[in-house]
Specification:
mainly alpha, 647 residues
Length: 647
């Protein structure tokens, strides 16, 4: 026997390392071909293995948020060869499906992907009809959180026969749209030699006009799986099959086209297509030209728009498409559109969406340069589109120097969104103490739509200090839209507030809470106020408080001493959700039949008829039989005619 030397030991050790490396490499390849990646497990919900459409939407948004953003991932799916067929796996499809079902129930995403290696290891297109039917059933009935993984693996293994089953699911209108689109994306898993067999199926699908979103997704996928011939084949498809939704094809062409393809698409602008289709075509051509760096073509289009298009439409379409273009393109485009305020406004907005210091400087220089002449209103609106605090100094300077009401709203909106607390306080001080009523109204209106919550006390203070009804209304709306308020605190303020506008604001806020004011407090407010808008609000609150609330409204409506104020209370009931309940309808019908005021009876009949409830026709007929006033009788007859089914 030969003596064992150090060299022999090292050689044996090296062989062992090589073998281990080969084994691990083989396993890694198997896992990769099953679709496993380091980030996928983070999307699973270990504690909630049941149906979770929100999880599916999050999964779907990763794949579908941008048709162009995931191109590399889809290409990887097509080019992914996977491991060689594994003859040692003797399990049947049904056994693997049962295994996957168990792992789905356990929320085991990693385990599901491991089991799907069974499909990835199959020779493409080798599945039997029975196997395809079994897997298609799993796809249709399975947890949508795992649609992406299962559908991709199935499509690779099943080929054209599987594609037919997938398209049947895509056409199922009972399934959520985002899941149907995810099934369409599974076509990206096909190998290049499978594509010719599947192409006719996708063509038939596009011809069937499955709806805008599905057509758009299918057109993108059709082009992608064709590889380098995607642009020409999509263009040919549109020419050969006019039934295909052309807007969807244009959208896909805009992502697939390369250098020189934009001009091919623009050749279609003068063909017999609709204005809407031409607009889609321009957007697509603009994206292609911007991506290939042909910015002169974009400028030529803006300078000489195709027939039927204004410079503004071109500026908006191409400005949106040219987000990757250098700022010098926008600088030249602003020069080309001098004198066309709307076109420059569209370009300024596109510049603002790019963001950054250079874009901001370009806007400010364009506004101060008479050779460009960017309109100050367009500048104000563009500044409001900027995201971030770097725009605030320019906003404040413009706000300080302008007297144009059209600029107030966008500038105050920008300041409220991105300003510091001190800057926002300065703006609120203007609302509280300033003398510019137009600016105050703009600030209040912006607050009513803003996410900023100044707090109950601050809003009530501002309402108390204002004598402008419009400002008070907007601040009241801002208070109502604020964060979840403490109902006890609102009730306490309501009892101790004399200002009618402030009380109305508090009542609106109370209507949004889960614990509205006590019945006795609302009833007291109803009988003590003489302000119709406040009465209307009290009525709405009481109408939502069940039988006791309805009783208070009914007592008020039957009390003649309240006179014309009863109309406000009745209107509050008619405009509340409770008017659709039996209790609400009964109170209104009692007014229609028994009120001493024929004006109030008329009001009740018209209000009930406007709700479109045909079940009231017999009630109206009974009231008509005893009504003496001709005006009310006419109203009832019109209501019956309006609500009766047409013959």
């Amino acid at each position: 026997m030969r003596p064992i030397t150090i060299a022999m030991i090292m050689s044996l050790f090296g062989a062992l390392l090589f073998g281990a490396g080969f084994f691990l490499g083989r396993q890694t390849t198997d896992l990769n071909s099953a679709g496993i990646n380091a980030g996928s497990s983070s999307e699973s919900n270990e504690n909630d293995p049941g149906l979770n459409l929100s999880s599916a939407r999050r999964l779907g948004s990763t794949a579908r948020n941008s048709e162009r953003g995931d191109r590399s991932n889809r290409q990887e799916d097509r080019d992914h060869d996977g491991p060689k067929p594994d003859d040692e796996d003797k399990r049947s499809s049904k056994e693997v499906i049962d295994e996957i079902k168990e792992k789905i129930a356990a929320g085991d995403r990693h385990g599901i992907q491991e089991s799907l290696g069974y499909l990835w290891r199959k020779s493409p297109g080798s599945m039997s009809e029975e196997e395809i039917a079994d897997w298609a059933k799993l796809l249709r009935e399975g947890d949508p959180r795992y649609t992406h993984e299962v559908a991709h693996a199935f499509m690779r293994a099943a080929g054209a026969k599987g594609a037919k089953e997938v398209l049947k699911i895509v056409l199922d209108e009972d399934m959520p749209l985002e899941i149907r689109r995810e099934f369409l994306h599974s076509f990206n898993a096909l190998k290049p030699d499978q594509v010719p067999q599947v192409t006719p199926l996708l063509e038939d699908f596009l011809v069937s006009s499955p709806g805008r979103e599905l057509s758009r997704t299918a057109a993108h996928i059709y082009g992608r799986i064709q590889g380098k011939d995607g642009f020409s084949k999509l263009l040919n498809l549109m020419n050969q099959k006019p039934e295909v939704r052309t807007e969807s094809v244009y959208d896909a062409l805009g992502e697939l086209g390369g250098t020189g393809d934009a001009s091919k698409l623009l050749d279609l602008i003068d063909t017999n297509i609709s204005q809407r289709e031409k607009r889609s075509l321009l957007h697509a051509a603009g994206r292609m030209a911007a991506r290939s760096g042909d910015h002169q073509m974009l400028l030529d289009l803006i300078q000489s728009p195709p027939q039927g298009f204004s410079k503004r439409e071109l500026a908006r379409a191409l400005g949106d498409a040219a987000q990757s273009a250098p700022l010098s393109f926008f600088e030249k485009a602003l020069l080309e559109t001098k004198g066309d305020r709307q076109a420059q406004a569209a370009l300024a907005e596109a510049i603002a969406h790019r963001g950054g210091r250079e874009a901001l400087d370009l806007l400010m220089e364009s506004a101060s340069n008479p050779d460009v002449g960017l309109d100050q209103r367009a500048l104000a609106h563009a500044l409001s589109e900027f995201q971030g605090s770097e725009v605030i100094p320019e906003v404040m300077e413009l706000l300080k120097n302008t007297t144009d009401p059209e600029q107030y709203e966008p500038l105050t909106r920008s300041l409220l969104q991105h300003g510091t607390s001190d800057q926002i306080d300065t703006l609120i001080k203007e609302l509280n103490e300033g003398s510019n009523r137009t600016l105050q109204r703009a600030i209040a209106e912006t607050l009513s739509h803003s996410e900023i919550d100044l707090g109950v006390d601050r809003y009530i203070e501002l309402i108390n200090n204002s004598n402008d009804h419009q400002v008070q209304e907007q601040l009241s709306e801002a208070l109502r839209r604020g964060s979840d308020h403490d109902p006890d605190y609102l009730n306490n303020l309501l009892q101790n507030t004399e200002n009618q506008q402030a009380r109305i604001a508090l009542l609106k806020a109370l209507e949004e809470t889960s614990q509205p004011a006590p019945i006795n407090q609302l009833a007291q407010g109803l009988t003590q106020t003489q302000e119709d808008r406040e009465l209307w609000q009290y009525s709405r609150l009481l109408s939502g408080r069940g039988d006791q609330g309805m009783q208070q409204i009914n007592q008020y409506l039957n009390n003649e001493s309240y006179g014309g104020h009863r109309h406000a209370v009745l209107e509050g009931l008619l405009e509340s959700r409770s008017i659709h309940t039996e209790a609400g309808k009964k109170v209104a019908l009692d007014v229609a039949q028994y009120s001493n005021s024929h004006h109030l009876r008329n009001h009740a009949i018209r209000g009930l008829a406007e709700r479109g409830d045909s079940s009231l026709v017999p009630e109206f007929a009974a009231i008509l039989a005893q009504e003496k006033n001709e005006d009310v009788r006419t109203t009832i007859q019109e209501a019956i005619q309006e609500l009766s089914p047409s013959k």
